[in-house]
Design brief:
The chain is globular. The protein contains 2 helices and 10 strands; from the N terminus they run αββαββββββββ. Helices cover 11% and strands 56% of the residues.
């Protein structure tokens, strides 16, 4: 399947490859607290064999066009203002399956998810005009809606909204558990 927006999408990720430094603020609505954190993260392309492994981990068939599908490795290390430390490494793929105007949609596959340490299939949409990548993951207790807007090749704006997952997956997401905001700057 050929997508016009795929070249813009691949350019978005080419700009994302490298080392980044992020300052974020998280608002936990349940207990009305605010927490600041600093994250260092690295994004690198993965090999065709690693892409195939992510597909297998998520019980997806191999694809003839796998070399055209964006696939990357992410390492991050976060330190909260309270000294809490979190580090994680994972491989991920973005598999487009629909293009509507300037919007590209598809599946976001990871070999390890953030909230649950298991392979995870989520959905993404990418708006070519605003260069915003929106990823929606349905975990067991929350639905995470994560937005990355590439302002320029050196600067990204991040927004993370975690909603309490409704019992009915068709119900609107209207109960926020966490709201996170951040600025991410490329350091090389």
């Amino acid at each position: 399947m050929t997508f016009q927006a795929l070249a813009t999408f691949q350019t978005f990720f080419e700009h994302c490859v490298g080392d980044w430094s992020a300052e974020r603020t998280y608002h936990y609505l349940r207990n009305q607290t605010v927490e600041r954190s600093h994250t260092e993260f690295q994004i690198r392309p993965i090999s065709l064999a690693q892409k195939q492994q992510v597909l297998r981990d998520n019980e997806r068939p191999d694809r003839a066009d796998l070399d055209q599908i964006p696939g990357y490795h992410l390492d991050f290390q976060t330190v909260s203002e309270y000294g809490d430390r979190v580090a994680q490494s994972l491989n991920f793929l973005f598999v487009p399956n629909l293009e509507v105007g300037s919007l590209l949609k598809g599946d976001y596959l990871r070999d390890r998810a953030y909230e649950e340490t298991q392979p995870m299939v989520a959905q993404f949409r990418f708006e070519t005009q605003s260069r915003e990548l929106l990823m929606t993951t349905r975990y067991k207790t929350v639905v995470s809606v994560d937005s990355i807007t590439l302002v320029n090749p050196q600067l990204r704006v991040r927004r993370i909204l975690n909603y309490h997952r409704p019992e009915d997956d068709q119900a609107p997401l209207d109960r926020i558990a966490l709201a996170g905001f951040g600025i991410e700057q490329k350091v090389n």
